[in-house]
Amino acid sequence: MILTGQSLTKTYGSLSALTDVDIACAAGTIYGLLGANGAGKTTLFRILLGLIKPNKGKVIINSDRIKPLGGIIEKPAAYEYLSAQQNLRLFSKIQKAPADKTTIENKLKAVGLSPERKDPVRNFSLGMKQRLGIAIALLNDPECLVLDEPFSGLDPIGIASLRSLIQELATKQGLSVLVSSHIVDELSKVCDELIILKEGQIVNRGATQEIISACTESYLISGPEITQTDLWEKVDAKMLRQSVQVFVGAEEIGEIISVLAKKGIQITSCTPEISMSKLFDTDTK
Ligand code: ATP
Question: pLDDT per residue over 164-173, tens digit each?
């Protein structure tokens, strides 16, 4: 494990922001930290990055890199009045990382930013600022990248493209990535593992697909003529316009899809409807 947090506990006066949180991050794996506002996500990331001290517990980093962890907490740290290149050069010099033209251009390209763009960062879209923030966080070649709410405020295209970037960093460069959000859908599409935080405590954790199936109580199946079959008389289902909400679990959905396929009924999507109460209250550890 590159990064391990053991029994991490943080209090602010009488408020318990984090209680006995254990976390372990391996190379090439993407971890999603899911929690509502105030659940303690930022507090945990701050502790892992060494920005604040826990009251109890310890962080163990197993790496021989000069700066094993890189991260963005709350918002990307770039100077708005400088261009992307100028920002990277400045941060490289501060961190004593290579700052020659080719290196800087390659680092911009690696996060999908064009080195041609010379205007100040204040003109950038939020998605571009996130990418620049990631480029800055990667300057010292860390083994673990911590991203606090990176999808927040991005449009669906921005979310999808940031997701691909995160996936690429984990798959191609073997980075361990820890990413937080309060939206399960943002994390479930990119994370290998989910850690569910509620009021400072981990209430659920595990492989993303296992958690999703354990917490799915119905599926929304869509298609132009999806309502036009007598199959729905035999299963617990609710007719919508071009969709049907089918109240079955992960073990039964495959059979329903296969019956629909045999009947020649076109399916355009099949999405699990995740039960938030199960996700946040059930301990499937
Ligand atoms: P959000 O999604 O809203 O960013 P979060 O899950 O990141 O929330 P934290 O920012 O970690 O949550 O906050 C956890 C709890 O600790 C909250 O109740 C917050 O008010 C409290 N808290 C965080 N930082 C401080 C601080 N410096 N002083 C006092 N209380 C704090």
Answer: 999 999 999 9
